[in-house]
Design a protein that fits this description.
Elements lengths: L1 H8 L6 H22 L10 H8 L1 H33 L6 H9 L6 H14 L6 H25 L3 H9 L4 H12 L1 H17 L2 H7 L6 H10 L3 H36 L1
Length: about 270
């Protein structure tokens, strides 16, 4: 009994459930995905799936198009979300927490319900579904994911930096460009990660807002899996995983460079 209590009392023992969870629900699925990606239907090792991806123009073009849509969606979310987050983080605004809840309230509604409501709205306004409605739906669904991380960073910024810059004669615009904006870059990068990658991999929003006339990369993956082409679908999923890793590396390096640059500036 004493031995059991000593094991439970160790801080490292409390990490065992999380390790088991990661093993079965994170590591194991990744291993299975890689195995399917580099095997054929008979289970033999092959590079046919990756070769088929580069030979199939539809999949490559869909990936390029999806990246373009993701860039547009991310840029619009930054242009709309940053001013909103800056407005909400301003300490002079009363009841800003209530405004934050109102901005983030759509996140509590299922994405399919929100998208179907958007489709119904476009139908009522007699707006034809296409690329424009797709981009609108993407911005509508992912804008809160851009506002939240930027708001969290801006709300926690040390106001003494801005006050020191103002005392040294900097104009409000210069204070924002030289102090506030550089210090808020980590929040922007977090928002980019939360918007860019889901935009490429989503398929439900594109199907509903374009009547499946426009396909994103997530749609190609979903169609292959549903048609029983597990090996090729796994390869496409692995390509998405490579994109995620590359984005993480880029945003991580940019965040470190920004922090060091701001530190030198201050």
């Amino acid at each position: 009994m004493s031995r059991l209590s000593s094991i439970i009392g160790r801080r490292s023992s409390w990490g065992v459930p999380y390790f088991i969870f990661m093993l079965f629900f994170v590591l194991a699925p990744l291993v299975i995905m890689v195995w399917y990606a580099f095997t054929d239907a008979q289970g033999h090792l092959t590079f046919y799936n990756i070769a088929e991806f580069f030979q199939e123009s539809e999949a490559v073009n869909t990936l390029v198009y999806s990246v373009g849509i993701a860039i547009i969606n991310t840029a619009l979310c930054i242009l709309i979300g940053y001013p909103a987050a800056y407005f909400l983080s301003n300490s002079k605004i009363n009841k800003s927490s209530i405004l934050v809840v109102l901005f983030l309230l759509p996140m509590l509604i299922n994405v399919l319900v929100r998208t179907l409501a958007t489709v119904a709205l476009f139908g009522w306004m007699k707006i034809p579904l296409g690329q424009g409605t797709l981009i609108f739906g993407m911005v509508y669904n992912y804008l809160p994911f851009m506002i939240l991380p930027i708001y969290n960073v801006l709300a926690k910024l040390d106001k003494s930096y801005s006050e020191a810059a103002q005392d040294l004669g900097a104009s409000p615009v210069r204070v924002f460009l030289k102090v506030t904006l550089p210090l808020s870059v980590p929040g922007i990068l977090s928002g980019v990660m939360m918007v860019f990658m889901p935009t490429i991999s989503t398929f439900a929003i594109a199907e509903l807002l374009t009547m499946n006339n426009i396909k994103l990369f997530g749609t190609i993956i979903q169609e292959n899996i549903n048609n029983g082409m597990w090996n090729y679908g796994a390869m496409l999923s692995m390509i998405m995983l490579v994109f995620i890793v590359i984005m993480n590396l880029i945003t991580g390096d940019q965040s470190e460079n920004t922090n060091s640059g701001v530190g030198g500036l201050i």
